[in-house]
Design brief:
The protein is mainly β. The protein has a single domain, classed as Beta-grasp domain (Ubiquitin-like (UB roll), Roll), CATH 3.10.20. Helix content is 10%, strand content 33%. It has a five-stranded mixed beta sheet. It starts with a strand and ends in a 6-residue tail after the last strand.
Length: 70
């Protein structure tokens, strides 16, 4: 399936891009690289979600670090 992945803030800087279109066999939003306890938030089609949210072709997934106040 094809999905669009968007990256924000420090994740965007680390990835070197703001978004990419990917072909994947993943069935959920979460990934091994985003293991439990990591400080990464996820959204599926612009709605906050957990790592076990199911994916379908055409979805948009976004990853971003938690917002800090100051």
């Amino acid at each position: 399936m094809n999905i669009t992945v968007r990256y924000f803030a420090s994740i965007r800087e680390a990835m070197g891009t703001g978004s990419e279109d990917l072909q994947t066999t993943a069935t959920t939003v979460g990934a091994h690289a985003l293991a439990h306890g990591k400080a990464v938030r996820m959204a599926l089609n612009q709605d906050m979600c957990s790592g076990d949210a199911p994916l379908k072709s055409g979805d948009e997934v976004a990853f971003f670090p938690p917002v800090t106040g100051g």
